[in-house]
Amino acid sequence: MVWEYLQPVRIRFGNGLIACLSEEIRHLGRHRGLLVTSPSFVYRGVAGKIKEACNGCLDGTFSNVSPNPDVTECDACAEQLRAGGYDFVVALGGGSVIDLAKAAAMICLTSDSIADYLDTGRVLPEARLPLIAIPTTAGTGSEITDVSVLSDHVRRLKVPLKSASLYPVVAIVDPELTYSLPPHLTASTGFDVLSHAIEAYWSLHHQPVCDALAVHAAGLVLRYLKAAFEEPLSAVAREKMAEASVMAGLAFTLPRTTSVHACSYPLTNLLGIPHGEACALTLDRFIRLNAAGCERVEALARLLGYAGSGALADAVVSLKHVTGMRCDLCDFHLSDEQLNELVLGSQHPNLRNNPIEITPDMLRELYVSLR
Ligand SMILES: NC(=O)c1ccc[n+]([C@@H]2O[C@H](COP(=O)([O-])OP(=O)(O)OC[C@H]3O[C@@H](n4cnc5c(N)ncnc54)[C@H](O)[C@@H]3O)[C@@H](O)[C@H]2O)c1
Ligand SMILES: [Zn+2]
Question: How many domains does the chain have?
Answer without folding.
Answer: 2
